[in-house]
Design goal:
The complex is a heterodimer of chains A (about 140) and B (about 130). Chain A is mostly helical. Chain A is about 75% helix and about 0% strand. In chain A, helix 2 packs antiparallel against helix 3. In chain A, about 20% of the residues are buried. The mean pLDDT of chain B is about 90. Chain B has five helices and no strands. Classes of the chains: A mainly alpha (about 140), B mainly alpha (about 130). The interface between A and B is large, with 39 and 37 residues.
């Protein structure tokens, strides 16, 4: 190869290098919502442990299920369950938002901001509604 | 000067070293999970009680067992796909990345096997 590279092998030290968005962009709520989708996804991965524990407990019979019920009755686990349910509803709505974007719709700034608010408020409403209905159902059967 | 074409640069590059399959499977599983999770959440609300006989009888029904099997396996698959992307984004050292991904894949497979075994065990009535 006789060609002399027209681009230097290494960039000059003070050349503008691309940086990750969280280092360069002004903090916006749309960005926070995007992070929240990842965070809730991770939370749901952790929540899967409780889900599988519940299934294994049922399959192991009455006594195993009774001890699992004591675990689920612990206040800290109840708080975790509420958090997991919130993570689920947010990840669900944010996922639907992503599927909408994948079809090429809702990518304009205004509609992306609007769908962001819908996902955020909607996830809180759905979480509250879910627990109200669940607890009402438990009370109604008792 | 690089002799590689633009297409050649795109193909096989990036942190994941591969292209559209992962992205596509993540979408397919997410669409399935929208339906399956809504069924599961509705079922939980309609269950009315979390006492052993109620939950056991619900899980012993064929349709519930099949849908729960789908929910557990597709959900755990989706989880593996998501965590994989996060590891690829934030773990830079190649050896560490491979190790973490392997551990994560094994853990997801273990969870899927546990869930599937538990569901089938109840459905086939091996234990009460």
């Amino acid at each position: 190869m006789k060609n002399v590279p027209d681009v230097p092998a290494t960039n000059p030290p003070n050349a503008a290098r691309p940086l990750s968005p969280f280092l360069t962009y002004k903090w916006r709520y749309t960005m926070a919502l995007s992070f929240l989708n990842r965070v809730t996804g991770c939370a749901l991965t952790a929540g899967t442990l409780l889900f599988v524990y519940w299934l294994v407990a049922i399959s192991n019979g009455v006594e195993a299920y009774a001890s699992a019920q004591r675990v689920f009755a612990h206040p800290l686990v109840k708080v975790l369950l509420v958090m997991f349910s919130y993570a689920f509803f947010y990840h669900l709505l944010a996922g639907l938002r992503h599927l909408m974007w994948d079809t090429g719709h809702g990518l304009e700034r205004r509609s992306a901001q609007l769908s962001g608010w819908i996902a955020f408020i909607g996830s809180i409403v759905l979480t509250a509604g879910f627990w109200l209905l669940l607890l009402a159902g438990l009370r109604g059967a008792a | 000067m690089s002799l590689r074409s633009s297409l050649g640069k795109v193909e096989g590059l990036g942190a994941a070293k591969e292209g559209a399959h992962h992205w596509w499977v993540q979408r397919m599983t997410s669409v399935a999970l929208v339906l399956l999770t809504l069924w599961f959440v509705t079922s939980l609300v309609l269950l009315g009680s979390f006492e052993y006989p109620v939950v056991h009888a619900w899980l012993a029904k064929s349709l519930n067992a099949v849908l729960l099997l789908l929910l557990a396996t597709i959900g755990i698959y989706h989880s593996q796909l998501g965590v994989q992307v996060i590891v690829e984004d934030y773990v830079n050292h190649h050896g560490a990345k491979l190790t973490v991904l392997m551990v994560i894949n094994f853990l997801h497979l273990l969870l899927a096997a546990l869930a599937a075994f538990a569901i089938l065990r109840v459905a086939f009535g091996a234990s009460t």
